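Worked example

This section walks through a single chain of length 291. The input is the sequence exactly as stored; nothing has been trimmed or padded.
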Amino acid sequence: MDIRPDARGKVRDIYDLGDRLLLVASDRLSAFDVVLADPIPYKGEVLTKLSLYWFDLLGDIVPNHLLSADVADLPAEFAAHADWLAGRFMLVKKAQVFPVECIVRGYLAGSGWAEYKRLGTVCGMRLPAGLQESGRLPQPMFTPSTKAELGAHDENISVHRMNEILGEQHGSALQEASVSLYSAARDHAAKRGIIIADTKFEFGLIDGVVTLVDEVLTPDSSRFWPASAYEPGHGQASFDKQYVRDWLEATGWDKTPPPPALPADVIAKTSETYIKAYELITGRTFEPERG
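Given that input, the structure is written out below as tokens.
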């Protein structure tokens, strides 16, 4: 698209429309906080359509920023790009976004498992001894982090530190909303054969109200496992970008730019994995907006 975005994230391009924003999900993929050179076909559509599904399903828990995802509502200057934008954009309300990511962990995996093995803690919080890798935690854990600039790494912070940054009222509201959203999504996904091991949310203030923003419960922001293959005690098969992470780890890449090029089979497998996650969670067949 030849219109320059006002801001560009790892995956999304953001266009400032004055009283609202146009968010466009690209097919870019980031791993280890580095944007890879190879796009993943249909990824942007999956992220957008899955976010729309969750916004609708979870809207009674906390309000969200969505206005429209209908091409008929695109501003005139974007009309010429409607075919490309279809299925991968959202018109949203502007929010004063909180400078933290709200991570909820329901299972012991990833960096949480690595820390637990070393110290018996996750993000500094003590857990019972004897827990297994990929095991379900006694209760969902809320572990906020800072939001790093593009190319930098997020940093885990304590709830106390989050409350210092945001104020206790807003910090408590974000923690309560995050755990409630995760718990509802976890229970819904379980009925569809998916375990949501962990996820992250972002929130902002709109007219003084805490509001869910950005994407929600997608393969980019969550760790999805097939329940049929779940077996605690080791890493799990995953409906997210773990397939790419594992391939990159195996190359010996030092996780600094530039990243290695992805082979065609890794790109195809990752695209299939994202689509499969969408279809299982929503119960709908993925139908691309364009070939």
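What to look for: Residues 16 and 158 are 33 Å apart (CA to CA).
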